[in-house]
Amino acid sequence: MNHVNLIDELKQRNLISHITNEEILKENIKHNSISLYCGFDPTEESLHVGHLLPLITLKRFQLQGHRPIVLIGGATSLIGDPSFKEKERFLNFDNKIDLWTTNITKQISSFLNFDGFKNNAVILNNKKWFEKINILSFLRNIGKHFSINTMINREAVKQRIKRSDQGISFTEFSYNLLQAYDFFILNKKKQVSLQIGGSDQWGNISAGMHLINRISKKKVYGLTLPLLMQSNGVKFGKTESGTIWLDPKKTTPYKFYQFWKNIEDSDVYKFLKLFTFLECNEINIREINKYKNNQIIHDKSYLSQYMTRLVHGEENLLSAERITNILFLKNINEIKESDLHQLKKDGIPSIEVNQIKDLQEALILCSLAKSRTQAKNMIVSNAISINTNKVTNKGYIFNNNDKLFNQFTLISRGKKNHCLIYWKSIVLKFH
Description:
Structural Genomics Hypothetical 15.5 Kd Protein In mrcA-pckA Intergenic Region, Chain A, alpha/beta, 18 helices
């Protein structure tokens, strides 16, 4: 096989935090098709944007002819990975984890090719082998290969041991052995020779490499990806209102789109390298010309569109762009009812009402004005719009024409301050 030097490309994209035996691994993946894996513990009902980097990296390997294996931690999630966590995770029950596993498996399925390829991706669950294992056999055959001294000196463990308020339980301490056993089983059953993960997984990956070497005398590899921070100091995937999830029920496609649209300018080209398949040379040229002809605005739009299409599909991307056009370009003609339901959920502030006396009262209820006097001044000064249409009548009273789909009214103050009114139906009861 004649592969492009994928490891060099990953380095150019700043996608490597740690790597073992780099030159040997480079030669291996250049001339052979390997199997690699990354694990995802279902500790929530959805993945979030922080999980995108390993998924897209698996895709890069698959496009070069390698077989990606996704391991769902149906068993290990019952324990909880302590790596660089300040305190022990809440332990969830089997039935909840089984449901989350189903959700996450469905999400992952859209990122990789599972049919029609020689190197089809595979999704496995470590619950399959841990359910059958005997604790005495595990301690005797696996535990004997690990030194407590080495395990205690892992940085993630040391941080917890030093804390007087939060130590580390034996349950969490054992996680390192469980993940190492995952790598061992996958190497034995699926010939997996490379594990990838976030840089916080380096200790766990190293443990797996150690176990395989001790039992099977085989050479395997580890590669970790950087844990991302945004230039504004906020953890990647976080906003003022919380985590950006991949599940559209938890984070609407519009809000997801806006997350990428609102990243700092200093992050645009870094994220284009990390998350997209644009050639590095092209990204470098774009960055050099970023202040010519609003290039950086076009590139930020490209990133927003690419990531939203990747996670939510073309239809939801078009919806997110329609909503954006409504709020910022004042084009409401093509709005759909589903777009307004997205806005109501987490796009912009919203209120639910049965009736409102007039526009002044609406501005106060929407927190766009503090008093009727202030509201009146805003209206007469041409600052207020209803469904993108300017209103200057200080005594304006709503009518049915103001209700989009008989349910919604969009109130705007200037270009950036919006509120969505949801008119609740009044059900008349007859006796």
